[in-house]
Design brief:
mainly alpha; globular; disordered N terminus
Amino acid sequence: MTAQDSATLPKSIAVPRTDRPRGLGGTGLAALAVLSFSFSFPAASWALQGFGPWTSTALRGLIAAVTAAICLRVGRTPLPERRHWPGLLVVAAGCVLGFPLFTTLAVQASSTSHTAVVVGLLPLGTATVAALRTGVRPARRFWYAALGGAAAVLVFTVQQSHGGFSLADLYLLAALLVCAAGYAEGGRLAREMPGWQVIAWGVLAALPVMLPAAALALAAEPAHPTWHAVTGLAYQGLISQFGGFVLWYRGMALIGIPKASQLQLAQPLLTLVWAVLLLGEPFSLAAPLTAAAVLASIAITQRS
């Protein structure tokens, strides 16, 4: 892209020459983030073997907050500007508090496979919120493909729930709404500040809620820290809640929120594989067929 070309683009989508992707590039970083996120639900299932859902959510937030504080301290990172804090609070509410809690409750009430496929609706939600928030309008073909993937997920959900929606689906609907806002806002902020700082300040912003929540949850829910439970909790705190977001927000900043969000359509298929291999969940033909349908829409959205 030449300087003349970039001058014709809106500021919200123009990428400066000094910020062009290197190494893996934006698509590679976002794909690695999706791979890391795909282990999140099996990790949640493991964590629930020894910790209650409220305890698991609070402790993963504390693990991420400690990790973020260390990184910010080592990097001698200054406080964000005042104009960044509203967006960081949205990231904290959606990605640090709401989504982990609602998906953990869903995994407890349903199977990992079912939860994973329903979350296939998240890319459409993220792209929609991003379009409303930033004004960037993807091509019409992009929306057709995204809606097709979402329709496949809805059909799977109704079929698995025998014509209705279960309690787990209500949890997942709430999770999708808050996380789409957190993803879109975090991706927007990552164009103005490093992506790792976006999630680092986001988890620290949630700390005043996480600390008392952890104390109350540990007192109310008995803990049985088995090897699987501790491993699952550690993965959620270090990777699902922090490390994966470092890659995710950086990838979003480089290739745009709508395009990056649709890469997450691959997450259900990957999670289904891990659910069978790691958790021994039964193989359902409807699940991989649905995952394959949403995976096919990735090819279209990435070329739109």
